[in-house]
Fold this protein.
Amino acid sequence: MCAQFYEDMEEILLESDAIQARIKELGEQISADYAGKEVILICILKGAVIFFSDLARSLKVQCQMDFMGISSYGDGTKTSGIVRIAKDIDCSITDKHVLIVEDIMDSGLTLNHLTQLLSSRNPASMKIVCLLDKPERRECVIAPDYCGFIIPNKFVVGYGLDYLGRYRHLSYVGVLKPQVYTP
Ligand code: IMP
Ligand code: MG
């Protein structure tokens, strides 16, 4: 049991043990689906970084890692709708099997934009894995190929997800107390 910043949380949504167990299952499923193939794992910075490193270590297929900085969020808890690419991947994905690793799918605008952009580079295949999904919030037609947990429409932090850059390092996912937003 981890007590990092528990006092700032209204609710603990996913304990560390539950996250780790689910990642093991996802790793097994993904490894089976990509058996005999090499995968390019693309980490969407910064939120996916913790999930990415745990998921990668659960995979039993050959893979390479690359990183992309893209965001549709401002500094707060509401999507701006503006998708900005801060850092592109370094490798060519043409004819490669691409697995995009994201922390959470919310409005879906970020991944909608990103998948369109990456498709134009003609990968052999492209799939999305996200740790969390808030399908209630979707503003476009997109769904992850693999999803860790479907969660309610609440703003969550921890395990990579932040509020104003904070709480990413927590090993669990929680909902902040309202007073943390309104000091
Ligand atoms: P979308 O484009 O609205 O799907 O937003 C996806 C991005 O918004 C994610 O990669 C996160 O960085 C951020 N985001 C969405 N929901 C949350 C949340 O509940 N907590 C923290 N960040 C979030
Ligand atoms: Mg993100």
User: Anything to note?
Assistant: Residues 47, 72-73, 79, 102-110, 155-157, 161 surround inosinic acid (ligand 1) (CB under 6 Å). The helical segments are 16-33, 49-58, 109-119, 178-181. The mean pLDDT is 92. Residues 16-33 form the longest helix (18 residues).
